[in-house]
Design a protein that fits this description.
binds iron/sulfur cluster, about 25% strand, 2 domains, globular, four-stranded antiparallel beta sheet
């Protein structure tokens, strides 16, 4: 049986704004086993990227605990956190924004090696060899080594992002919408590449996306988020064949059916989205839920275990 590499307990991240407290991530707990993928799904603004960044301590958590490889890293000092960057990395959604336009492919891939002092800047030959090795690994032609981001298409830029995340040989990678900005044909290539690399290096992924169909085949578990909360967690078959939370059901109904003869049964989400600022008691989905009852507006539902590995936060299952 594989070991747990990441354990998150009651993680909360609030932002303090002029209008009040913005609840971006609220009391989320889960585990990921070594070599597995957790898909994190939800609409834009639901807090999934903040969750990924809080785990990497790019945002400081407000409360809760994060354990990586058995160590509590929640309050690790910056110097030790910098060391941990060797093992925990991130791939961003839009590589064009995350890459420095003034850095060539070679410089972008080499940067983490220099920051982490794996090589001295004088070791030009060794660095160059490592860059070329990474370019081969992610399928980037060596002739592009001195190119700049604006000279490359989205797929190639994302390959640089992947090479840069992998160059330190990490164990865990937060993949923050890594294919959302790409054409559909390129998306498949990048997803295949990421799966091959996971197999080759035993990587563990937290794969963030707004599109449930993207994570169906590559996740061992899927976590559904709504307005900062985990509303459902299960295996892909539990989520796709037996979705429990009304929000998960609505997300699933929005996935296009490839056969035009099969009518789509889309669950339209109407109603106002609850503001994440100064959020009160009650279910955060109540204003948009088809099944909302009186207690939903006043009493916050708790996470319930419905079957092994399948959790839901909804009064329908109280
Ligand atoms: Fe809908 Fe109530 Fe369940 Fe919230 S708790 S999802 S409002 S039924």
């Amino acid at each position: 049986m594989s070991n747990t590499i990441l354990k998150v307990k009651n993680l909360t991240k609030n932002f303090y704004t002029a209008s009040g407290v913005l609840s971006a991530v609220s009391n989320i707990s889960f585990e990921i086993k070594t070599g597995e993928t957790l898909g994190v799904v939800g609409e834009s603004g639901c807090g999934k990227s903040t969750l990924g960044r809080a785990i990497l301590r790019l945002h400081e958590p407000t409360s809760g605990e994060i354990y990586f490889d058995g160590t509590n890293i929640t309050k690790l000092p910056p110097a030790e956190m910098k060391q941990l960057r060797n093992k925990m990395q991130i791939i961003f959604q839009d590589p064009y924004e995350s890459l420095n336009p003034r850095m060539s492919v070679s410089q972008a891939i080499a940067a983490p090696l220099l920051i982490q002092k794996r090589y001295k800047s004088s070791q030009k030959h060794e660095i160059n060899q490592k860059v070329l090795e990474m370019m081969d690994l992610v399928g980037l032609a060596r002739r592009l080594v001195n190119s700049y981001p604006h000279e490359l298409d989205g797929g190639r830029r994302q390959r640089i992002g992947i090479a840069r995340a992998l160059v330190l040989n990490p164990k865990f990678i937060v993949c923050d919408e890594p294919v959302s900005a790409l054409d559909v044909s390129i998306q498949a290539q990048i997803l295949n590449l990421m799966q091959d690399l996971q197999e080759q290096f035993g990587l563990t992924y937290m794969f963030i996306t707004h599109d449930l169909s993207v994570v169906k085949h590559l996740s061992n578990k899927i976590l559904v988020m709504y307005l900062g909360q985990m509303v459902e967690l299960g295996t892909p078959s539990q989520i796709f064949e037996n979705p429990l939370h009304p929000y998960t059901q609505a997300l699933l109904s929005a996935i296009p059916v490839p056969d035009p003869n099969i009518p789509m049964k889309r669950v339209a989400l109407t109603g106002e989205i609850t503001s994440p600022i100064n959020i009160g008691e009650g279910c955060r989905f109540a204003k948009r839920c088809l099944y909302a009852k009186e207690e939903c507006s006043n009493v916050s539902p708790e996470i319930k275990k419905i079957e092994p590995g399948h959790l839901v936060m909804c009064h329908l299952f109280s």
